[in-house]
């Protein structure tokens, strides 16, 4: 695969409803999309960074800059045998996993299309249908939260994740548990607590949660390893895990028992697969997290969720929960049993709606392998 051209587009899309977490409220998205062309075949990826550095340190704009200035020059004109090789070329760039993942995942799409295979098969996926949960943003009060849970369960979703923050935590989750005694429930704190809050966090043990996600700081494995032995509820790490070494450290020091894998946060499929394999070898479940993606990122999340270690329902849900009109055809749909049937067309398996993307584009940059210019790398 010769990496001939990278086209970055930034689009703007309104969410159907605001999404509140402990770190802020999102109403609309500014998303960078990656199109990479190799030997005349296009592949698509999505930068899953948020607009501001409040979930992790990357943003739409940092990813844009790093892709244009540092990542594109490392790869344009290079010939690779398989998408799995591109991470080697990107080694000089430290961090910026979401920027790297946009390119890496798009190259996997290219490779799958070139081989005439659905991407999930190329990855080694084993399940033709994946289990879906939802992530519910923080609601005004327990009444609204219960109504929201009720709606999602009616739509078939298999587990409910409730976002929490100080002041909207134990009582909110307890109210849901009281109303829905058999439902698979979990809570996600997005780093809103400290080890000093252990007494409060222990009280969640009474609510029979599948897990509590990322209670402590985004980069703090050590204090999670102090917290986990104090809780019956398994800790699941999200923000803390940026690469396979972090996953090994986290399980090794007992900082968590479950890992949420996000393609962007770990730099793409090569790392995601390594984490999945490592966790499977240790008997630790993994599941696929979400970043309010468009259909392009969503299609990649579906492909990854077919890997054998993804034994728990992920935050991969229907396009219509987020967008009035998605960027792919058909849109992602969830069955009444709360599953997504994985598609069998080559690549990501969904058609990319180029016209719609062009209509939504607010800036665009096309980068080609030309005669070497000023080298900014290393
Ligand atoms: O912590 O999993 C998270 C959204 C944005 C940033 C972080 C998170 C989330 C979600 C939403 O929980 C998942 C989704 O539905 O895409
Ligand atoms: Mg999370």
Q: Could you explain the architecture of this structure?
A:
- The chain is α/β, with parallel strands linked by helices and 378 residues long.
- It has two domains: 3-116 and 352-377, 2-Layer Sandwich (Enolase-like, domain 1); 121-349, Enolase-like C-terminal domain (TIM Barrel, Alpha-Beta Barrel).
- 31% of the residues lie in helices and 22% in strands.
- The strands form four sheets. The chain has a seven-stranded parallel beta sheet with strand order 5-6-7-8-9-10-11. Strands 3-2-1-15 form a four-stranded antiparallel beta sheet, sandwiched between helices. It has a two-stranded antiparallel ribbon with strand order 4-13.
- A hairpin with a 2-residue loop joins strand 1 and strand 2 (24-38).
- Helix 1 (60-75) packs across helix 3 (97-115), helix 5 packs across helix 6 (170-179) and helix 9 (244-252) runs parallel beside helix 10.
- The protein binds 2-succinylbenzoate and magnesium ion.
